[in-house]
Amino acid sequence: MSLNEKEWFTEAFENNTAFAVHYTKKLYEAQSEFQKIEFYETPVMGRVLSLDGCFMVTEKDSFVYHEMITHPAGAMTPHPESALVIGGGDGGTVTELVKYPSLRSITLCEIDGEVVSTCKKFFPEISSGLSDSRVKVVCLDGAAYVKQFQDEFDIILIDSTDPVGPGKALYEMDFYRSVKNALKKGGVATFQTESPFFMANVFSDTVKNLRSVFGHECATPYLSVIPSYPGALWSFTMCSNEPKDAFNPQSGLSDELLKSLDYYNAQIHTAAFVLPNFVHKLIS
Ligand code: SAM
């Protein structure tokens, strides 16, 4: 069967590059108040969620993203009690957080309730953490929601889309200051900070802005590989209200938690913070 005879879901990045997967069935399509939501069944990536034509979650590789946005922060905050996820409507990040027995409250602030409801239907495993009794879901703009808190959360994870549409508010300095205020003194806030390859300007500007709010020593990028995201190499930036040595996690994750993971481990934690020269140049 030639390529043309197959059905493809394609994410065109800035109309110059594209990543495509063959799908066997389009499971869902709707225009929510905020974005176009699509789900596909694919032989290679499993089920795929796309928002406004961008890969968001695939059954094949989203475990890397969800583990890597969550567990470096979890390893840096001994006995976290309260956590906030902004964005993350697929539930995958919350599903990683519910693995921490010390967490007593986990709030998901996702602006689009339709993302939550459809991911519960099409990604029952990835979204399973949403049914944990400690989890509260609010469907609001995270930039407005976080303003009400002061010194409230041990862990804040910003699992946002790109800086377009509603996601734009999550890349503003005012939002960064609000997150800093909502974070406890010893807490950690981790932001997904895009591709150092294909969104180098967004990455370097975001790290620079986070460093101007949290302090140069308190905003540390790290890397991982998410095959379905543009350029595959992906960045996160770990922030805190006091300097932390990212290379030396303060609390070892329990063996039970580590056994449940398929990507993150203590060596990966350390290696993730080792940056290649071109990334150092982008943030120096
Ligand atoms: N892992 C994905 C990534 O790195 O691009 C993000 C996945 S998650 C589905 C992104 C979510 O952020 C979307 O469901 C979107 O609705 C939500 N979002 C965008 N802007 C938001 C805002 N201002 N407040 C809360 N949620 C927002």
What is shown here, in short?
With about 280 residues, the chain is of the alpha/beta class. The protein has helices at about 60-75, 90-95, 115-120, 140-145, 175-180, 200-215, 255-260, 265-270, 275-284; strands spanning about 10-15, 15-20, 25-30, 35-40, 45-50, 55-60, 80-85, 105-110, 135-140, 155-160, 185-190, 220-225, 235-240.
Description:
The structure is a single chain. The chain has nine helices and 13 strands. It has 284 residues and is of the alpha/beta class. The chain folds into two domains: 51 residues, Spermidine Synthase, Chain: A, domain 2, CATH 2.30.140.10; 222 residues, Rossmann fold (3-Layer(aba) Sandwich). The strands form three sheets. Strands 9-8-7-10-11-13-12 form a seven-stranded mixed β-sheet. α5 crosses α6. The protein is globular, with a radius of gyration of 18 Å. The termini are far apart. The mean pLDDT is 96. The site of S-adenosylmethionine (SAM) has 25 residues, from β7 and α4.
